[in-house]
Design brief:
The chain is α+β, with helices and mostly antiparallel strands. It has two domains: 39 residues; 87 residues, 2-Layer Sandwich (Alpha-Beta Plaits), CATH 3.30.70. It is built from five helices and six strands; from the N terminus they run αααβαββαβββ. The strands form two sheets. The protein has a four-stranded antiparallel β-sheet. The chain has a two-stranded antiparallel sheet with strand order 5-6. The radius of gyration is 21 Å and the shape is globular. The N and C termini lie far apart (49 Å). The mean pLDDT is 90.
Length: 160
């Protein structure tokens, strides 16, 4: 039941408990109780709007920063990741496989903001041995939702 409720909330977080219940064959009381329990356990961390910032006048730039680091004995990259996560500019931090140890998503008002963050805060951090920054130029899909004017993938029937 939890997974089904979470999937509905992830896709449409503003649905009333009654409608979620109807979709899943549950009462609104069952849905409400399960959601409250998941919130209390910290499984549901919060609710927010998915915004296409490119359609606003707000200056906002995101970058993915691959961070190479030195793991700590007995803690791995946990302390480094927790330290980096505390910066206001940091949107999210992920332990990753591949060429980098951490992938950090950073938000700023422009490219210069992010460059300054990397140069003045991230790169000098103890345990960081290297960084590589990629700026988001355009978003086509965000959190499972298509963005902007992406053409339909439906195929047209062609007669011989």
């Amino acid at each position: 039941m939890r997974e089904k409720i979470l999937r509905v909330l992830t896709a449409e977080g503003r649905l009333p408990d009654v409608e979620i219940g109807e979709r899943l064959g549950l009462t609104s009381e069952e849905v409400r109780a399960e959601i409250a329990a998941m919130e209390a356990e910290g499984l549901i961390l919060g609710y927010r709007a998915l915004v296409d910032w490119s359609k606003t006048e707000v200056e906002r730039v995101f970058a993915y920063i691959l961070v190479e680091g030195t793991p700590e004995h007995g803690a791995g990259f946990d302390q480094l990741a927790k330290h980096i996560a505390r910066f206001d500019e940091v949107h999210s931090v992920h332990l990753t496989s591949g060429s980098a140890d951490l992938t950090v998503v950073v938000e700023g008002k422009d490219f210069r903001d992010i460059a300054l963050f990397v140069a003045e805060k991230l790169a000098p951090t103890s345990g960081v041995t290297g960084t590589s920054t990629s700026f988001v130029l355009k978003t086509y899909k965000l959190e499972g939702r298509l963005m902007g004017d992406i053409p339909s993938t439906r195929r047209l029937a062609v007669s011989p």
